[in-house]
Write a structure and sequence with these properties.
2 copies of one chain form a homodimer.
Chain A (H helix, E strand, L loop, with lengths): L2 E6 L7 H16 L3 E6 L5 H12 L5 H8 L1 H16 L4 E4 L1 H4 L1 E3 L8 E4 L2 H8 L3 E5 L2 E3 L5 E3 L4 H12 L4 E6 L20 E3 H9 L7 H10 L3 E5 L7 E4 L3 H4 L5 E5 L2 E10 L4 H11 L7 E3 L6 E9 H17 L4 E5 L2 E7 L9 H11 L6 E5 L2 E7 L3 H11 L12
Parallel strand pairs in A: 1-2, 1-9, 2-6, 3-6, 9-11, 10-12
Antiparallel strand pairs in A: 4-5, 7-8, 11-12, 13-18, 14-16, 14-17, 15-16, 18-20, 19-20
Helix pairs in contact in A: 1-4, 7-9, 8-9, 11-12, 13-14
Chain lengths: 411, 411
């Protein structure tokens, strides 16, 4: 007998029919003798509908009230799922954020979990009650409703698994697991059976949308085994877990791409110490994350300073950059949103040199120009012209021998 | 400067545009120097949508989870209204049931308010913040979400007004106030300027849908002035308040009708003591309220026993009655849902006899047969064939001189 946390996303609970399927799956796990905590998102489309209402009211909704608004979505789902399980004869009970309670800081819309009070849940589990917990939401020290940011239900699931020392946190999704790359653009993409937290973190940061980054950080910190699997079948998915020798022997685990960044280039900046800070400080002060950064080789005491931000931050970032550029007497600020970032990720890079070189050569062979580069211990990312994205992913997937030969990709 | 509670129903907050209008009205009251507590229902249609989801899941939804589900509707509205007021530059803050907290018993879906904690709200009011409170919902001693029954937001409003000793509780609705009868079937119906709690209680119990009964009981108990008025204009509405001499001088204040009852007749029951109890006890044990009761004059030691229940309770009531009828060897159980209850209400009846007689004579003159009668100190109700409802209301409205002569009825 184990304690299993099962998290179901919006698509998996998108209709009453699907909620019924989720209930059956939960019941099966429970009937096998396990204690079960279920974490659910809002029904797909609901959060968007609520957000649209907020935007209809005002362009800049108050963040406290925004969280009150959007957290209502999960409240609907937990109630429906608990009703469904009870109508099937199971003991089940819904919990919303403050009832658990999931204590967070007060950063509305992107709150961080500080503490989970597991007392009530433990009592119910001891009583063999199935816990249905609202994902995505928490409560701050003053009793205000908070939310954890888009995809926050993954984090709720992993955090509950950590707090209650669950044996596994199963994240049910509409794909079969984590793939070596996006099967939509590379038909030889293969499901990965096991992957380390660090690789998963890189993949999640670099564009793989299957898990929220913070949930992986949580899993790593508290050593929670996360099993990413399909809510539509019983196939084993991908286990995200502590790294081991076997994982290290794999040079590259996955290829990701992201088209959600825009390039901003500050042209002809005087090449003096402190220039980067002058451009980047106001951006970080405005809570804008800069991803890739490139400073060209100096020429006559001038240089170009280029960086990328997400498309969501772009408008604000451009405004701030233009102000900074004027102050440091740059000649111009250029932008390009026709870019994409392609990355290769693998623990094996730590002990094997040459991955970056192989990557650059492979792209060069196809005539793909590399605009920016960034690396970490276990990943290499490049910015290229967006139109080459699919091609780049496919040739790299081949180059690093990721194609599944015997495994059929089910979608 | 006063403390004003303003309650807006589902129609008044049925769209973002209407929420904006509510915000403007609240702001106007606030700008006049008043402290304001706003109580809102779910957007019209939303509660029905949630109920439909529950019924799609199961025929008999668990009541605890049902309350978790439907209470999400008000959460949406308080957030949107608070956002709207904040975007207009006002200090505003939403509160849902447990945040206030509105402590209730644990009778899910028809919980009764036990205590309101006004500490947080008072702090915010002192700070000149507009309070936006979710109507309809509360929290029980164990932290479970409860709801107060359909129309419960009226009760939330009056209860908050009582707890915070507000100067008035304004109930905004889609009509101009309380009418002498339904203007839809009697075009001479007139808006009542002032009415006593007791008359309002009878009117509300007898079919006038403008206020939830429990809210009037609350208002009476705590002496809260309730001003029922239109959310679409600034006309004065109806003040529900303590009775005074002037009110007592009015013989009949209003005529109501209700078509939501069904008659159940147990035929040829042995006319022995305890028979009524044998039929009614199992019904009350099943929490079914019996309204009108009639026991015919005995004939050869047998009698007919007739009563009415709401259409909502009918199916269950019939099942129970048939069982009881079999036990006491009644010959048959007949039902008739083609009935309506017409009532006249007025404080003046206390001191003036003859209202019932005038009522019966008036109906007789039109050939309307009276099937059942029930009376209280300030009302007379009769059950008649449903097809005569409108006619009965109109002739009684005339007979008791309720028609507005100089007052134009605005709808």
């Amino acid at each position: 007998m184990a304690l299993v946390v099962q998290k179901f996303g919006g698509t998996s609970v998108g209709s009453v029919e699907r909620i019924r399927n989720v209930a059956k799956r939960v019941a099966k796990t429970y009937d096998a003798g396990n204690d079960v905590i279920v974490v659910v998102s809002a029904m797909s489309g609901e959060t968007n509908k609520l957000v649209a209402l907020a935007n209809e009211v005002t362009e800049f909704p108050d963040t406290r009230e925004y969280d009150v608004l959007v957290s209502s979505g999960e409240q609907v789902t937990v109630a429906l799922l608990a009703m469904c399980l009870k109508s099937m004869g199971y003991k089940a009970k819904s919990y919303i954020g403050h009832q658990i309670s999931i204590l967070t800081d007060s950063s509305f819309s992107k709150a961080r979990i500080k503490k989970i009070n597991d007392k009530k849940i433990r009592q119910d589990l001891n009583d063999r009650t199935i816990i249905i917990a609202a994902g995505f939401q928490g409560v701050d020290g003053d009793g205000n409703i908070t939310t954890l940011g888009r995809g926050g239900s993954d984090t709720s699931g992993v955090a509950l698994a950590a707090a209650l020392k669950a044996d596994v946190c199963e994240i049910f999704t509409d794909v079969d697991g984590v793939y070596t790359t996006d099967p939509n653009i590379c038909e030889t993409a293969r499901k990965i059976d096991r992957i380390s937290y660090d690789e998963m973190l890189e993949l999640a940061s670099l564009g793989a949308k299957v898990l929220q980054i913070r949930s992986v950080q949580f899993a790593k910190k508290f050593n929670v085994d996360v099993h990413v699997r399909s809510s539509f079948n019983d196939n084993p998915g991908t286990l995200v877990t502590k790294e081991d020798k076997e994982m290290e022997s794999i040079l590259v685990s996955g290829i990701t791409y992201a088209k959600d960044e825009t390039k901003i280039a500050v042209m002809r900046v005087p090449d003096k110490p402190g220039i980067a800070a002058k451009i980047l400080s106001p951006l970080s002060a405005a809570n804008i994350s800069v991803d890739m950064i490139l400073q060209n080789v100096s020429e006559d005491g001038f240089t170009d300073f280029t960086f990328t931000v997400t498309k969501a931050d772009f408008k604000k970032a451009l405004m701030i950059t233009k102000e900074a550029a004027a102050e440091i007497h740059a000649r111009d600020v250029l932008t390009d949103d026709n870019i994409s970032k392609v990355s290769v990720v693998g623990l094996g890079m730590r002990s094997h040199a040459g991955v970056a070189t192989r990557m650059f050569e492979t792209l060069a062979k196809e005539g793909i120009n590399i605009q920016m580069i960034s690396t970490s211990e276990i990943k290499v990312s490049v910015v290229i012209d967006a139109k080459y994205t699919e091609l780049a992913v496919r040739v790299l997937h081949d180059e690093f021998e990721l194609s599944g030969k015997e495994v059929t990709v089910e979608r």
